[in-house]
């Protein structure tokens, strides 16, 4: 809340309080006046009876007397007029209805008294006195019913008994106005008096409200100060450091519990004594005294507001190392000083120990730094060695790729010409040379496969194997593959089954390499299975949030041991040395499968039991994304057509 | 200055409490009762007594003597009638204000059954203080009867020749002092003027215990 808003709220609060005070004062006046009138009513009633009994106790009928009607009127009519408003004044003081009833009753009582006194002119002053008394309410409205009663009294009696009112047998119909006018004449002054009185009451209420606010503000300020003092005392009481307040002369004014504990003196002993004399040894007393005096004289802070390490004296006479800071404090009344003292005995001991530990640590740190420097040199050397090794590997792969290419050209010529020579030998009738030519062709093809494998592997390791990404139909690719491997499958009397080929409609990847992967697996399965079954399962799956297709090739062939499965994806490796001899092959097929899977962001693994068959599983992303391609490129795997 | 103040009595709401209905009812009954009581009082005080049948000429049988060449005023009074106090006050006013004071008699009734001195009331003493007034005890109201008076306060004025000039009361109501037609008439006659009225109502106790109440 801003200052303006706060001021407005305070002013509104004061005005509201002033209204309350005014209302209370007004209500109090109404109540008191009601009670006064209640008493007056009873008094008038009594006086009326007394007067009637005194002046006209009896009425006479010749020699016969009886109680005068005035007596009964004083008792009964006076009672009727008086009791009700008196009761209201006592039971319901302060209410408007009460004072209006009282106003009417007072004027009726006036009429009664005037009649009881024989219409004496003096008694008519009761009317004017009553109006003045009604003005005690400071509510001009009560004058209205009172005036109306007087006017009606004169009006009615003027109509019915004009002589009793005006002294003439026949009076003007407007004569009553003359009488009422005199009452109104007084009303005017009473109205002004009431208004002025109300204005004064309002002014008084405003002043009182303002005074209350002032008193309240002061009380709040005093409470705040008291609370602040109590809070400060509490803080000093629980402070772990010694806090000692001094007056201008350096005499102790406050000595907190921590100081008592540190120095052994009670606060009662310490207060009033000079701190320098009481706690400090002789050689440092003048320093403190001079600092205080210098500040008071010139304002020079000197050693004030600084941390100093000194030696103090306990009550027992034992010296204690302390850290002390003396700060000047300006209060409304005087200048004081606060000394913050801390016993640093333990700290000093710890600092010494810490210094010795620090030295040990620094020595150890030097040793470690030297070891680290040696380690860094070794790492640098290793990194250089690794770079050289990688460079040699790339050179080897490039050499192999180049060599394989140079070898395939003459080999293709050998295979082609051996086929041509077989046809010529058949046509010219030299069947004895056909067998030799077939062996030449077979050896050439084997050598070509070997070279192709070496070429692919070398391309991969050389980072020159490119991916040709396109969308292709998985089922079509599988069907084409089945047609290709059928002769191999049937050669060892195996049965090939394909399941789930239609579960994955299409995928975006390198169809040639995918086909090569499956072809290699099916070739191996056909080769190592006789009179068994080979099953190709295709299914779609999501792994690590990547939509993938999983191909598995399961056979009932010879199977492998666990040790064999662990190195089956290494190049030039077969289950054992007898495998090549018995089943043939280059030992590069599964290595190429593994590399192709890596190349396309997939994976391959094998489950196998010796003598029971093997299950190779290949998992590839359905869509090789650009990100995957970029990742592969960053990993040294180029992509492209 | 404060601009407006909500009185405490209406701070709880504008609707009147349940008791106010009863209060209004009692207030109306109270007002009606008070006005009715006053009305009875007013009616009583303004009810005139029995009128006199006074002789037009000075009665010959009276023991009162007229003063030659001077009007004679006779006021018949009941010594115990408090209403007559106003009549005596008015008589004093008349005697004081008239330029030709009349020969004045104030007759106080003295029934025979009462002890001597019964008639010597404060009214007697008041009348005795009137200038040129003769106070006469009227045993058993013989003189009152001669003058035909029936009500205390009955005032008669005869001229020097013994002719009745005025007969009536000199108060505006029972026991009420102040301006009234009777007093005005007497003053006018004594000032040799023509009065507005020569007969007025008499307000006072019955002299002989007839139907007139006091």
Care to describe what's here?
The complex is a heterodimer of chains A (641) and B (214). Chain A is α+β, with helices and mostly antiparallel strands and 641 residues long. Chain A has 4 domains: 3-213, no CATH class; 239-343, Beta-Lactamase (2-Layer Sandwich); 349-464, Helix Hairpins; 465-634, Heat Shock Protein 90 (2-Layer Sandwich). Chain A is built from 19 helices and 14 strands. Chain A has helices at residues 3-55, 69-91, 96-116, 125-134, 143-160, 162-166, 175-238, 257-263, 267-270, 275-279, 282-298, 345-428, 431-462, 474-491, 511-527, 562-566, 577-583, 589-599, 626-634, and strands at residues 58-61, 64-67, 242-246, 252-255, 308-313, 319-330, 335-343, 470-473, 495-499, 506-509, 533-543, 546-555, 603-609, 613-621. In chain A, strands 4-3-7-6-5 form a 5-stranded antiparallel β-sheet. Chain A has a 5-stranded mixed β-sheet with strand order 9-11-12-14-13, with helices on one face. Chain A has a two-stranded antiparallel ribbon with strand order 1-2. In chain A, α1 (3-55) packs across α7 (175-238). Chain A starts with a helix and ends in a 7-residue tail after the last helix. Residues 627-641 of chain A have low confidence and may be disordered. Chain B is an alpha/beta fold. Among the domains of chain B are: 17-45; 72-190, Glutaredoxin (3-Layer(aba) Sandwich). Helix content of chain B is 30%, strand content 14%. Chain B contains 5 helices and 5 strands; from the N terminus they run αβαβαβαββα. A 5-stranded mixed β-sheet of chain B has the order 3-2-1-4-5. In chain B, α2 packs parallel to α5 (181-190). Chain B is elongated, with a radius of gyration of 24 Å. Chain B starts with 17 loop residues before the first helix and ends in a 24-residue tail after the last helix. Mean pLDDT of chain B is 86; it is low at 1-14. Classes of the chains: A alpha+beta (641), B alpha/beta (214). At the A-B interface, α1, β1, α2, α3 and α6 of A face α1 of B.
């Amino acid at each position: 809340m801003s200052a303006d808003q706060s001021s407005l709220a305070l002013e509104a609060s004061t005005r509201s309080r002033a209204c309350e005070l005014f209302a209370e004062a007004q209500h109090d006046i109404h109540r008191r006046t009601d009670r006064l009138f209640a008493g007056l009513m009873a008094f008038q009633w009594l006086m009326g009876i007394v007067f009637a009994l005194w002046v006209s106790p009896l009425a006479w009928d010749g020699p016969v007397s009886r109680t005068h009607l005035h007596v009964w009127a004083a008792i009964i009519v006076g009672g009727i007029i008086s009791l009700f408003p008196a009761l209201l004044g006592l039971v319901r003081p302060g209410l408007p209805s009460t004072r209006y009833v009282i106003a009417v009753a007072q004027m009726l009582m006036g009429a009664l008294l005037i009649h009881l006194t024989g219409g004496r002119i003096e008694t008519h002053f009761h009317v004017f006195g009553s109006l003045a008394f009604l003005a005690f309410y400071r509510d001009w409205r009560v004058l209205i019913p009172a005036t109306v009663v007087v006017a009606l009294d004169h009006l009615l009696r003027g109509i019915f008994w004009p002589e009793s009112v005006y002294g003439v047998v026949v009076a003007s119909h407007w004569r009553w106005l003359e009488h009422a006018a005199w009452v109104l004449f007084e009303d005017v002054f009473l109205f002004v008096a009431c208004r002025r009185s109300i204005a004064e009451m309002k002014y008084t209420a405003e002043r009182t409200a303002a005074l209350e606010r002032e008193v309240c503000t002061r009380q709040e300020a005093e409470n705040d100060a008291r609370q602040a003092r109590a809070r400060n005392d509490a803080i000093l009481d629980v402070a772990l450091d010694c806090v000692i307040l001094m007056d201008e002369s350096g005499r102790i004014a406050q000595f907190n519990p921590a100081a008592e504990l540190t120095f052994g003196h009670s606060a009662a002993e310490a207060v009033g004594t000079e701190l320098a004399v009481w706690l400090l040894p002789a050689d440092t007393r003048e320093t403190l005294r001079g600092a205080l005096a210098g500040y008071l004289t010139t304002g020079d802070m000197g050693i004030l507001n600084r941390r100093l390490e000194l030696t103090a004296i306990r009550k027992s006479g034992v010296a204690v190392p302390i850290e002390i800071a003396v700060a000047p404090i300006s209060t409304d009344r005087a200048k004081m000083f606060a000394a913050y003292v801390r016993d640093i005995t333990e700290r000093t001991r710890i600092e010494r120990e810490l210094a010795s530990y620090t030295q040990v640590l620094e020595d150890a740190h030097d040793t470690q730094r030297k070891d680290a420097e040696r380690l860094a040199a070794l790492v640098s050397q290793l990194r250089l060695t690794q770079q050289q090794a990688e460079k040699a590997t790339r050179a080897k792969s490039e050499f192999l790729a180049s060599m394989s290419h140079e070898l395939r050209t003459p080999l293709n010529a050998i295979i082609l010409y051996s086929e041509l020579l077989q046809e010529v030998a058949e046509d010219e009738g030299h069947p004895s040379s056909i067998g030799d030519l077939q062996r030449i062709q077979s050896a050439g093809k084997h050598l070509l496969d070997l070279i192709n494998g070496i070429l692919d592997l070398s391309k991969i390791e050389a980072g020159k194997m490119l991916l040709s990404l396109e969308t292709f139909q998985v089922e079509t690719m599988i069907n084409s593959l089945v047609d290709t491997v059928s002769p191999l499958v049937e050669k060892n009397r195996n049965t090939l089954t394909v399941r789930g080929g239609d579960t994955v409609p299409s995928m975006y990847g390198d169809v040639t390499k995918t086909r090569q992967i499956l072809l290699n697996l099916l070739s191996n399965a056909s080769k190592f299975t006789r009179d068994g079954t080979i099953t190709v399962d295709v299914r779609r799956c999501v792994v690590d949030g990547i939509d993938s297709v999983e191909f598995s090739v399961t056979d009932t062939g010879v199977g492998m041991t666990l040790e064999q499965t662990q190195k089956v994806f290494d190049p030039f490796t077969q289950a054992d040395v007898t495998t090549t001899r018995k089943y043939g092959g280059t030992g590069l097929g599964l290595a190429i499968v593994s590399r192709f899977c890596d190349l396309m962001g997939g994976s391959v693994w094998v489950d196998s039991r010796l003598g029971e068959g093997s299950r190779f599983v290949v998992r590839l992303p359905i869509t090789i994304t650009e990100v995957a391609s970029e990742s592969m490129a960053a990993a040294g795997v180029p992509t492209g057509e | 200055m404060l601009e407006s103040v909500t009185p405490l009595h209406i701070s709880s709401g504008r609707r009147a409490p349940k008791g106010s209905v009863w209060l209004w009812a009692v207030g109306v009954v109270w007002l009606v009762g008070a006005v009715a009581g006053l009305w009875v009082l007013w009616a009583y005080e303004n009810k005139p007594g029995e009128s006199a049948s006074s002789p037009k000429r000075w009665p010959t049988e009276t023991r009162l003597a007229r003063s030659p060449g001077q009007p004679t005023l006779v006021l018949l009074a009941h010594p115990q009638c408090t209403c007559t106090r106003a009549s005596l006050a008015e008589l004093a006013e008349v005697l004081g204000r008239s330029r030709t004071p009349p020969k004045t008699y104030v007759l106080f009734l003295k029934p025979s059954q009462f002890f001597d001195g019964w008639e010597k009331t404060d009214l007697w003493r008041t009348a005795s203080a009137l200038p040129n007034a003769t106070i006469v005890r009227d045993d058993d109201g013989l003189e009152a009867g001669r003058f035909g008076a029936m009500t205390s306060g009955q005032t008669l004025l005869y001229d020097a020749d013994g002719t009745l000039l005025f007969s009536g009361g000199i108060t505006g109501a029972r026991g009420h002092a102040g301006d009234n037609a009777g007093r005005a008439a007497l003053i006018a006659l004594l000032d040799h003027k023509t009065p507005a009225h020569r007969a007025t109502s008499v307000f006072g106790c019955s002299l002989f215990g007839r139907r007139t109440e006091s």
